[in-house]
Amino acid sequence: MELGDSAERCVDEALNKAKSEDKLPEWIFGWNRQEKWSGMDRKGIDFMFQTDVGPIFLQIKSSKRNAREFEREHPNDKIRTVVVNVLESPMIIFEQVIDAVAKQRNKFLALRTAPV
To answer: Which residues 6+ apart lie within 8 Å of 99 measured at CB?
Structure first.
């Protein structure tokens, strides 16, 4: 198994642990880890979160270098990139992921309330 798969698995485990402990924000209704080689995976989406502002997409990377490369190749501001160290605790990984999802959510909320 490659490091990227391990990082995705760690994120999924951290999210499941947080859910079982009732620590997910109320605005996250659920999430899906995308299947390897699926259409979403090919677009650079590893996780899709269902939220009160619609879907939020994450790409999980195991290094900052890989994250920068992904962002250069996919200049799509609809996909957030999160660098995950598989040696970190599930709580740290959960906090990193939720922080990224919250930032994207806040961006969507700001667009909704921006004057026309």
So the answer is: none
**pLDDT tens, residue by residue, 38-80:** 878 888 899 999 999 999 999 999 999 999 999 998 887 789 9
Q: What is the CATH number of domain 3-113?
A: 3.40.1350
Extract the tokens encoding 27. Answer: 């605005």
Going by C-alpha positions, the residue among 37, 34, 41 that lies closest to residue 11 is: 34
Rounded Cα gap, residues 59 and 94, in angstroms: 14
The residue ranges of every structural domain in the chain are 3-113
Model-level pTM?
A: 0.88
* DSSP-assigned states of every residue in 96-110: HHHHHHHHHHHHHHH
- Contact call for residues 76 and 44 (beta carbons, < 8 A): yes
